[in-house]
Amino acid sequence: MEHIFTSEIRNILKKHFKHNSEEIFEKSQLIQYINLKTKSANKGVKSRASFANLYAIYVIIEDYIQNDFDKRKDYSNYEGAPFTKLFHRQRQLPFGSKLQNHALNNRLNAEFQKFFPTSEFTPILRNLETNRYWINENLIKIKIGNKTFNIANSIIDIIDAYSQIKKDTFEKFIKYCKKLQSIESQTPNEVIEFIQSLISITSDARIFEIVSYAILKFYYHDQNIYWGFDIKKLNKENLKLYKTGRTNANDGGIDFVMKPLGRFFQVTETLDVKKYFLDIEKIERYPITFVIKSDLPSETLMTNLQDNALLWYSIKTIVNKYIDCIEEIINIPELIKRFNFSVKQGYLNNILEEIIIQSKVEFNYEED
User: Fold this and answer.
1) In angstroms, rounded to a whole number, what is the distance separating the alpha carbons of residues 199 and 189?
2) Separation of CA 29 from chain center
């Protein structure tokens, strides 16, 4: 695969290996994998960054270099890098503060095998008893003719270059949001078009969740509910939407919670019925609203879920119990409709400000 960042990968390899760089690029499965994972480098903040698997490679190779194994020949005798060290290190890297252990434990190897099904190697080796990790040296030592080239340092440089591009892109995104804030009253249409572009099919999952939250927060903001224990003494309260944590977090399948109704919202981009039912099961079949990154009509999405569920489970009574837990499906057209309603209510700048706040939290961005 050739994309914009591929040329940067080639340049870095050329600095390290000169006239052997092209052959190393073609022969190295690990370089080819990194090339696939960095295709979003110049696509802006809306595209998926794929840091988890890249950083799993990064921290293990970094440990390899720190112990001088790129110069030594006794890596096979190494006791391995402790998991706690690798896990802590990946969270120190740009955008890595909330990364979990999935990539280190299995996800990287599983995806690598998917891309290279005939390969006899996987990137990460680990001892489950000692919780120690190694990079597979077979993937970082490339033989050309009579020479063997170690690509460990070049991989570090490639991932550093990629993360710097993504960091620069995100900073531009924040600056552009702030610029739009300052001109919102003069050119509201530009702000509207920008926010709508953030909830497209191609948006990064985290950006989609952040923008969905900002829109729905102010959509429900002016809606009131009356409640109380005495019919003569009812309380009037605005509906308030709360974001429960980071995106893609292991939080039981609850992305937003609404007070005082106690409604649960889950944001998703998959149409896999098993994932929906798993989310429902994790919250003990409590009613839930799904915000789906899809342009398909909500009715079609619900019908597809039912049909796929019957194919998978076959028993109608089981399927119906799960389907009955779905309070509402909110698709992209419905999000845009609610966004436009909130804009008419005067909340355009508030939505933009919420996007900035949540984006900084999500991407671990701190300004000087």
Assistant:
1) 16
2) 24
